[in-house]
Amino acid sequence: MKCTVPDCGAPALKDDPDGRCFWHSEDREVIERRREASSRGGCNSKKVMNPQTSEDLNLALLKDVDELVSRTLRATITGDLSVTVAKATGYLARSLTMIRETALLEARIAALEERIDKMGGM
Fold first, then answer.
1. Model's pTM, two decimal places?
2. Contact yes or no for 83/76 (Cβ under 8 A)
3. Residue ranges, the chain, pLDDT below 70
4. Theoretical Cys-Cys bridge with 47: which of 4, 61, 82, 99, CB 3.0 to 4.6 Å?
5. Cβ–Cβ < 8 Å for 3, 9
6. Chain-wide mean pLDDT for the chain?
7. CA triplet 26, 32, 34: central angle to 5 degrees?
8. Residue 47 has what pLDDT?
């Protein structure tokens, strides 16, 4: 059964006399549980990676980026890191990897162009 509040669509609580969902119920116990859930949600959004776990990574090598992403994944799975921070870390790690790949390709192209110039051009 769906919540009786128009346009809600969430499942109704079994024991709610008005057929409302968790977020719309006017039952005192549900209101208290909702308040607690909201409080916990606010705490979870403030989770950040422990600086001691990431300070030994200088991210100069691909293996360091791989280690950072692995640590981020583990911390997210265990609940020690918010999904928001994990997403940002993943996005930035991917950006860093792409920048490095592009720089490597640019260096290789420049080296090839230099060899071509030394051979008398084409």
1. 0.51
2. yes
3. 41-56, 121-122
4. 82
5. yes
6. 84
7. 80
8. 54
